[in-house]
Structure formats: structure tokens, C-alpha cells
Design goal:
GO terms for molecular function: N-sulfoglucosamine sulfohydrolase activity. About 30% of the residues lie in helices and about 15% in strands. By secondary structure, it is an alpha/beta fold. It binds 2-acetamido-2-deoxy-beta-D-glucopyranose (NAG) (4 copies).
């Protein structure tokens, strides 16, 4: 009997292992579970959902009533393509290789070996679609089954701002007879600036399709206009007529984005998917105003985030204080579908996700954890090398400006805007700027910036040199370095050392000092 018992045990163990293996290999995703992900372009908090009562966003407001609203969500990087790459891979830009913008002379792409969300999903039997702005490459890494983007030859104005056309494409995708569950990614180009590329339509393309002579018509759009006198000027923007004019134009395109969300949610409902689709709304980076986009101050890093799950109705309409990051979106979608993240290496280093699924937060407000996020920036345009690494917890933020001896750069799109020209003109002529900093301070930053958010939400007082915060500073420095190491950051020794990690140093990567005084 003992022998039989032993044999039986072994048999059972083998059977168990075989079953477990079988389980992984023949994994079939849960049916009737879909994802619809909306990404705004440079969108911020100009919605009633976040207490802005001037900008009209009835569709986002309605979505919020079916969502958990994250009050402390942050982008992993404040630049378009790098941010979209982080959303679609769960990896910070320095780990996935998308160091700057994808388009034109900037020409950044992720590493060929990156396993992106759409590709993992496709391999697991999920149908994938993208409509609107894509702005990530290479194509092989960011493949979607259904694709109507600027990289498929469609004008970005049409696929990203013409909400009638976007609705029609969504209808086409959603009426497919393909029985597989789906991920549909909608990349609005609203409310991005426009003065740099299509000035004939206004600073934010707010006139595009409004029916005025020469502007064309977007049949489903009912334009909402705003009086510059009524807009809410964020604390990090100068309160001047020029900036107010820009904000009013921005609001008009936010209202267009909002109506686009309404149209697409209606298509989802008509196709019968409302009750089995996880809907998410966020943005890629901060608003295109001074101290916003391309900065990792909170004005460039904090994002709207709504997560609406038909399977987690308990907390619909609630707010969460959990600190969330855009690198949490890939783990959230994988969790929703019950698909594991693959085991693999990039540039010979093991790849591990540092984000986590947001689904548990939809069930219960966490009492511990969810109190730290990280961010990482290298470039925006190819000329704008300004590497930064950031750790942000509930109270403090530490920014490491690794190239701080060079001036911070201004991108082409923002430079030509009325808001920035106004700052330049006023600074040049010695008039009051009505801004909370000087251009000189904006350009020339210290290597370390430490802010206490409790006392100083606008991040105006750098505490890095204050002895009373010495231990806070050293703890945060250590934390950001640990995260850089965990995410295989090639910049881990910058700006004072050279990383040696091959040959003699293969087993023990080491920062070798340059003696440059940093
Ligand atoms: C909006 O303001 C109310 C009242 O101050 C506050 O309780 C709430 O948390 C705010 N909501 C968001 C999303 O910031
Ligand atoms: C938007 O798309 C619709 C549908 O394709 C088209 O009829 C309309 O002319 C487009 N509007 C503009 C402003 O291009
Ligand atoms: C800035 O100054 C230039 C040159 O005087 C002028 O043409 C432009 O209109 C000004 N722009 C703003 C926004 O003040
Ligand atoms: C990263 O951490 C590993 C494991 O602790 C260590 O061996 C390695 O030297 C660290 N890399 C750097 C550049 O500090």
C-alpha cells in the first residue's frame, strides 16, 4: 500500500504539473470582457469631474458616475510618444526605448524586442483596434488588428479631431462579427495645440469643422465657445489676456473631445457591449502651458484618470486617493482579461512590470500602499535633451535634473503659442509677467528639486538644500535609484558617472566616477 501511495502521490503531482502547463498553454480569455481606452492629447483637469465648472463636459461627467475617479493619477513621462509607449507597454520610456517623439526628425521608436499590450493581447486571442493618434513605433511592436491612424495614411486632423469620422470607424470596429473579446484604443488629437501646424484653424484647432466659411463641418459636433474672461487660469499659468484666450480655445476642443466620447460610448451601447466593457479615460501628459507638458512638476505630470468597470459597480461615482501611474494601465488590462505578463529580456536584462492592476482599487479604497509613483523623461523633440527622474509620494516630490547645467528647452508647438510669446514679450520689455516664476528660473534649474506638497502644492520652494530635509532627501534619492535599477535605466549613473555593465563588469554593473564635480 505504501508503494501504491507513493506512486499515486507522484502520479498526482505529475498530473497536476501537466494540468497546470496545459492551463497556461491553452489559455483562452474570458469571453464577454472588452476594453475601451480613451486617451486625450495634452488633456488636463478642465472638466467638472475635477471640479472645473466652466468647461462643459457632460459625457465625461456621465462616465465619472460609472467610474472610480482617481484624484492622484500621474503620467510616467510628460511627452506624447514616450507617454503613449508607457501606456501601451507598462514600461517607462527609458526601459522601452521611446526616448522622445516618434514623428518627423525626432524619429524615436521602442526597442524591437518590447512586448507591447496589443501584441500580448493579440497572441492571447483578443482582437485589437486603434482609432486616432498613434504616435508610437515601430509598427511591429505596436501592431493592432484594426488601425485607422496617422501612421496608416489618414490625416491626423480627420482621425483625431473629426468626431463624426471617429464615430464611424468605431461603429465599423464594433459591428464586426468576430467573436473574440476586444481592446479598442481611441487616441483623440483634441485638445492639442494647433498654432504650430494648422494655424488657420486657431490656436487649438477650435475652429476646425465648426461650419464657418472655409472651416468645414463636423456633422456631429455642436461647438461650445467660451469667454476668455470666464476661464479658470491654473496657478502655474500667467493670468493675462493672451493666456486666457488660449485657455478659452482649449476649452472648445475639450468640449469636442467630450462629445466624441459620448458618440463612441453610444456606439458601444448600440453594439451591446456596455455591460462587459472596461472603459478608461486618461491623457498622455500635462497641458501645453508653461510648467506643464514636458515638465515633471505636477502641472506636467498629474493626469485625469477614470476607470469604469461594469463588473465593479460598488464604487461607481466614488473618488480614490490611491496614487496611480499610467504604467498601471497595462497591468490593469491584463488583469481584466486574466492574461499573465510574459517572461522575457530586453537588451539582456529581465523585464518586470513596476506598475500594478487598478482593479482592486475599484472594489475597495486601499488603506495601505498606493502612495508612491515614479516618472522618467529624456527628450520631447530631438533637440530637447533634458533627462529627469522623479519619485513622488503623498507628501514629497524629488526631481533629479540630470542635465541641469544646460537650459531647459521649449518645444516648437508651445514656443509659437500666444501664451509663451506673451511671456517672452513681457520678459523682454520688462513688464510684469503675472507668472509665478521668471523665465530665467524656468530655464536654469538646480540638479535636485525637493518639494513638500502639503505646504506647497505649486512646487515653488525647493527644499533640497534645506538641512531640515536632509534625511527626506537622502531617502528619496535612494528610492529613485532603486527604481532606476529595477527598470534597467541606462541613465542610472548620470550625471556623475559612467555605467560599466559588460566585460569585466558583466556580473556586477558599476557606476565609475568621472570626477566632474556632480
Ligand atoms: C471636488 O471638490 C470637492 C469639494 O471640495 C472635493 O471633496 C472633491 O474631492 C473634489 N473632487 C476632485 C476630483 O478633485
Ligand atoms: C468629418 O468627417 C465626415 C465623415 O467622414 C465628413 O463628412 C466631414 O466633411 C468631415 N469634416 C471635416 C471638417 O473634415
Ligand atoms: C509679441 O511681440 C511681437 C513683436 O512685437 C508681436 O508681434 C506679438 O503679437 C506679441 N505677442 C503676444 C502674444 O504678445
Ligand atoms: C542594481 O542592483 C543590483 C542588485 O542589487 C546590483 O548588483 C547592481 O550593481 C545595481 N546596479 C547599479 C548600477 O547600481
Amino acid at each position: 500500500m505504501a508503494n501504491f501511495g507513493e506512486g499515486w502521490d507522484v502520479f498526482c503531482s505529475v498530473l497536476f504539473v501537466l494540468l497546470a502547463l496545459h492551463d497556461v498553454r491553452s489559455f483562452s480569455p474570458q469571453t464577454k470582457r472588452n476594453v475601451l481606452l480613451f486617451v486625450g492629447d495634452d488633456a488636463g483637469f478642465e472638466t467638472q469631474v475635477y471640479n472645473n465648472t466652466v468647461c462643459k463636459t457632460p459625457h465625461l461627467d456621465a462616465l465619472a458616475k460609472r467610474s472610480v475617479v482617481f484624484k492622484h493619477a500621474f503620467t510616467s513621462v510628460s511627452s506624447c510618444s514616450p507617454s503613449r509607449s508607457a501606456i501601451l507597454t507598462g514600461l517607462p520610456q527609458h526601459q522601452n526605448g521611446m526616448y522622445g517623439l516618434e514623428n518627423s526628425v525626432h524619429h524615436f521608436v521602442s526597442f524591437d524586442g518590447v512586448r507591447s499590450l496589443p501584441v500580448i493581447l493579440k497572441q492571447s486571442g483578443i482582437r485589437t483596434g486603434i482609432i486616432g493618434k498613434k504616435h508610437v513605433g515601430p509598427e511591429s511592436v505596436y501592431q493592432f488588428d484594426y488601425s485607422k491612424t496617422e501612421l496608416d495614411g489618414f490625416p491626423i486632423m480627420q482621425v483625431g479631431r473629426n468626431i463624426t469620422l471617429m464615430k464611424q470607424f468605431a461603429h465599423e470596429f464594433l459591428s464586426s462579427t468576430d467573436p473574440r473579446p476586444f481592446l479598442l484604443y481611441i487616441g483623440f488629437h483634441d485638445p492639442h495645440r494647433c498654432g504650430h501646424t494648422q494655424p488657420q484653424y486657431g490656436q487649438f484647432c477650435e475652429k476646425f469643422g465648426n461650419g464657418d466659411p472655409g472651416m468645414g463641418k463636423i456633422p456631429d459636433w455642436v461647438p461650445t465657445t467660451y469667454d476668455p474672461g470666464e476661464v479658470i487660469v491654473p496657478g502655474f499659468v500667467q493670468d493675462t489676456p493672451a493666456a486666457r484666450g488660449d485657455l478659452a480655445a482649449q476649452y472648445t476642443t475639450i468640449s469636442r473631445l467630450d462629445q466624441g466620447i459620448g458618440l463612441i460610448l453610444k456606439e458601444l451601447e448600440l453594439a451591446g457591449y456596455t455591460d462587459d466593457t472596461l472603459v478608461l479615460y486618461t491623457s498622455d501628459n500635462g497641458i501645453p502651458f508653461p510648467n506643464g507638458r514636458t515638465n515633471l512638476y505636477d502641472s506636467g505630470m498629474a493626469e485625469p484618470l477614470l476607470v469604469s468597470s461594469p463588473a465593479h459597480t460598488e464604487r461607481w461615482g466614488h473618488e480614490s486617493n490611491a496614487m496611480a501611474s499610467t504604467v498601471d494601465l497595462t497591468p490593469t488590462v491584463l488583469d481584466w482579461f486574466g492574461i499573465p505578463y510574459p517572461d522575457y529580456t530586453l537588451n539582456r536584462e529581465a523585464v518586470r512590470l513596476t506598475g500594478q492592476s487598478l482593479l482592486p482599487v475599484l472594489q475597495r479604497e486601499p488603506s495601505t500602499g498606493w502612495d508612491t509613483v515614479y516618472a522618467s523623461h529624456n527628450l520631447h523633440e530631438v533637440t530637447m535633451y533634458y533627462p529627469m527622474r522623479v519619485v513622488r509620494n503623498r507628501r514629497y516630490k524629488l526631481i533629479h535634473n540630470m542635465n541641469n547645467l544646460a537650459p531647459f528647452n521649449i518645444d516648437q508647438d508651445f514656443y509659437i503659442s500666444n501664451t509663451f510669446q506673451d511671456l517672452l514679450n513681457r520678459t523682454r520689455s520688462g513688464q510684469p509677467t503675472h507668472w509665478f516664476k521668471t523665465l530665467k528660473d524656468y530655464y536654469y534649474r538646480p540638479q535636485w528639486e525637493l518639494f513638500d506638497h502639503q505646504a506647497d502644492p505649486l512646487e515653488t520652494t525647493n527644499l533640497a538644500g534645506d538641512r531640515r530635509y536632509a534625511s527626506v532627501l537622502s531617502d528619496l534619492k535612494e528610492q529613485v535609484l532603486r527604481w532606476q535599477n529595477a527598470t534597467n535605466d541606462p541613465w542610472i549613473c548620470a550625471p556623475w558617472g559612467v555605467l560599466e555593465n559588460s566585460g569585466l563588469y558583466k556580473e556586477k554593473p558599476t557606476c565609475m566616477p568621472m570626477d566632474n564635480g556632480l
